[in-house]
Amino acid sequence: MTIDLEKRSGCALLTLNRPEALNALSFDILREIGDAFDEVAGWKDVRAFLITGAGEKAFCAGADIKELRNRTLTEQKRGSEFGQSVFGKLDRLPIASIALVNGYAFGGGAELALASTFRLAGADAVFGLPEIKLGLIPGYGGTQRLPRLIGEGRALEIIMTGRSVKAEEAERIGLVNTIADGDLIEAGLAFAGRFTRYSLPALEFARRAVQRSGDGPLHEGLQLEADLSTLAYQTRDAEEGMAAFEEKRKPEFGDE
Ligand code: CO8
């Protein structure tokens, strides 16, 4: 196995564990990541999903370049679609995911972080989509998720120059939510603690509505918002939340 999957303080924690290759995404590790996402989807007792990379140097240095060579076009296309489908599983999880980016997040590694709900950077984090330097372009979602996050102009500049983005700039342009001091896993658990006390259905509906905001026409997004806010309204948690407000007490959400 080249990943570790465990539970930590009410969260799922996945560690890419191939530090000798800077956690590069071989086909095997991608498959393991996909299986881990499926497994976590069935865990009822976790409220957020943290993803990190083993070793001091890298979150993940991208697709395994040594494996990329000598592929047929069909293999290449399937490879790209496979990586996209693995990272796409994060969107469909009932819980939010947080990429804890230590060191390099390049290529497919940056794309894994982009597919996560939130990104926390260590002070040493460096992002990049350097595929252009290999004569390639991003293939695991980077051309679609980066512009949605930071805008087309900045995304084009980063993708077409292949330049690196350090933690401070990443925070300034909205590529990461925040820079964390100290132990990144502790920081990730603390970050998760800022929302995991709320009702899981409400958190999921909010995430789904916001994630669709860049996808289509405004009127469709507004319809989805109306539908999901009505679903949230029908939960016991909404009843409890509004009752607790009136009774001037803290709500006790039961995730239903
Ligand atoms: N793939 C395979 N091995 C890697 C990768 C990688 N992406 N990155 C690092 N490694 C290996 C190195 O080969 C080296 O192994 P060895 O010791 O056996 O030579 C080991 O990890 C340590 O790396 P370095 O010695 O290079 O470490 P440095 O600190 O000198 O440099 C860097 C760190 C700057 C991160 C450097 O390793 C680097 O530039 N790596 C490549 C980054 C990159 O270009 N990533 C993008 C890859 S392409 C991609 O992600 C998407 C392609 C399109 C998808 C298509 C789908 C099929």
UniProtKB/TrEMBL annotation:
Q: Which Pfam families match?
A: ECH_1
Q: Which UniProt keywords apply?
A: Lyase
What PANTHER family does the entry give? ENOYL-COA HYDRATASE, MITOCHONDRIAL (PTHR11941:SF54), ENOYL-COA HYDRATASE-RELATED (PTHR11941)
Protein origin, superkingdom? Bacteria
Q: Which family does it belong to?
A: Belongs to the enoyl-CoA hydratase/isomerase family.
Q: Which Gene3D superfamilies does the UniProt entry name for this protein? A: 2-enoyl-CoA Hydratase, Chain A, domain 1 (3.90.226.10), Lyase 2-enoyl-coa Hydratase, Chain A, domain 2 (1.10.12.10)
Q: What is this protein called?
A: Enoyl-CoA hydratase-related protein
